[in-house]
Amino acid sequence: MCIRDRRRVHGDVIETSNLNRQFLFREKHLRKPKSSTAAAAAIQMNKELKNHVVARLDKVHEGTSHIFTDAFFESLSVVTNALDNVQARRYIDSRCVNSKIPLLELSLIHI
Asked: Is 89 exposed, middle or buried (0-12, 13-18, 19+ CB in 10 A)?
């Protein structure tokens, strides 16, 4: 199995409402950062991910474009997201389109 570096980016914390719809989180994870908790859970499920997962707490949006630069996006082979914020989804989508990076969208939109 080939494992390259994985980056988990999420500036939010786990809330009670996350427990019934996100399989990585448990009650003991409440009020902890989503990115570092998800990274730890992924490593626990697949030990080969150890030292290949980077958890970031910065939110990805226009105001953090100095952190998540074009070079950052261009260094990725694929982007996955499960955002519940339509504005954030559109921003990530535009960055992936501009960087020619595939985006796997994992969220649903309520119409």
From this structure: middle
The pLDDT mean for the chain works out to 84
3-class DSSP state for residue 101? coil
Q: How many CA atoms lie within 13 A of 31 on its CB side?
A: 0
Would you say 34 and 83 are in contact if contact means Cβ atoms under 8 Å apart? no
- Give the tokens for residue 8: 């988990």
pTM: 0.72
DSSP secondary-structure letter at 27? G
In the chain, what percentage of residues exceed pLDDT 70?
Answer: 86
For residue 31, the one-letter residue type is R
Question: Hey, is 95 helix, strand or coil?
Answer: helix
User: Contact, 103 vs 96, CB < 8 A?
Assistant: yes
φ, ψ at 79 (rounded to 5°)? -120, 135
